[in-house]
Every structure is written in structure tokens, then in C-alpha cells.
Amino acid sequence: MTYLIDAWLDRPHPYLRILHRDSGKVCVMIDESALEELREQGDLDLASLNSNEPLVLKELLRNLFLFCFARALRPPSHTNASNLHD
To answer: Domain segments of the chain: what residues?
Structure first.
């Protein structure tokens, strides 16, 4: 599968989405509170988003998916900041 990272980080309410490249379907939506949590944990390297290296991007995508799945497993009061889509 091939994915596209759609990141708007330099706006008042930043977000990051992972899209399925062929269908355009949103696989993951990460809002500003989840992005802040990623930054605080050191799991969001902004330089990686600008990389053209396939292995760097693959690792970034893997980490973002894992982060979102972990947030989805939290109790309901903590899952509203990051949404996984079918």
C-alpha cells in the first residue's frame, strides 16, 4: 500500500492526515493536541516529513499509525484527539 502524508503544521490549528494514495481515503487524522503529544514524546520529527528517503518515510508512517492505534485503545475520554478511519 502507498500512502500520502498531508500535513498542515504551520497554521493556527495544525493537523496531519495519512491518505491512501490510490483512493484518497483518509486513514488517519491527527489533530493539534495529538500532534503536541507526539512532539512532547519526541515521536514527530519535522525533518522526516521533508525527507525523500523511502525508509525514513516508511518509519515515520509506521510510528504515526502505531501512535494512533495506541490512542484508540485508551479509555474514551482520551481518544477524541486522534481518529482512525475505516
So the answer is: 3-84
